[in-house]
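Hey, quick one: can you model this chain's 3D structure?
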Amino acid sequence: ISSPLGRIASLILTVVCYLSVGPLFATPRTATVSYEIGFSSYFGTSSSSLLIYSAIYFAFVTVVSLYPNKLLDTVGHVLAPLKIIALAILGIAAVMIPAGYVPAPINHYVNSPVSEGFVNGYLTMDTLGALVFGIVIIQAIYSRGVTDNKLVTKYAIIASLISGVGLTLVYLSLFKLGLGSHEVAPNAANGAVILHAYVQHAFGNMGSLFLTGLIFLACMVTAIGLTCACAEYFAQLTKLPYKLLVFILVGFSFIISNLGLTKLIAVSVPVLSAIYPPAIVVIMLSFFWKFWHKPSFIVGSVTSIALIFGIIDGLKVAGFGDYLPNFLQHLPLNEQNLAWLIPSLVVLVVTTLIDKVKHKSI
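Sure thing. Here's the predicted structure for all 362 residues.
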């Protein structure tokens, strides 16, 4: 879907997406999240405890990821069903056992809840993950002996719909869980603290064990999938052996994970604020190629603008806003960190008009 950007720009965007959901942010975060939510209450929050845990965690990820042909059997038939069952239990509990009263909104959620939720959604990295996981789904379909392109497309669409509905249900249950979390986890530093406190509230002493198993399964399945996807892609790109890349990616993820969850999130937010806008633009515009005579002109122009203003948003989030020119600090939607949206829409309209006019003149 990034082909209209041209070979070099498309390659850069793809590599950045793979690195973001791979060894830079998403894969290391699976280790830190599973430790801080499920295991820190037993082994403490010291850096040495996280180091030992992440070493064991990524050793398991490596073993499974080294044999991608068995991925469907290992993950699809064993780990994924257990993960779905555990998530279903948590989702039902969030609805049936509320954490407490719903307090008044605070901070940016008072005046701009939609944009605040939208920007915080960058942290899920689901958009980038969707771009990356495609190769895993396709390889899994091929491994079952399906070679017809129409059937591959059909099964990929079915898998996408199932995952989309599943993610929607998971997030709705998390919304419900978080609404009343103030009573069970006041002044929580991050979502991991809230989730742990809620499960303890809902399930008592057995809740910690349940949550440990749930988070470990969920994070492990994600880490394996991301590692396989990244290794597959970079093996095709660099011609390096797949298994060597697994060791490199896992080793890098292991190192980054030992920053801890809070630091990892703090580092990732500015970067995601910069790369998410162009990724969103590329995906959204892919639905409209057939309406344009020269999609590369429109997609390239709008994506470039989204990237430029995304970088500006990233610099502001990183604390460099005061060093930017004054007019950049007063752009529409600047306070919501969505300064890229209106310029991108303007460029989209202008380039679409140019595309139509040029075609008519020809």
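One thing worth noting: Residues 262-362 form one domain.
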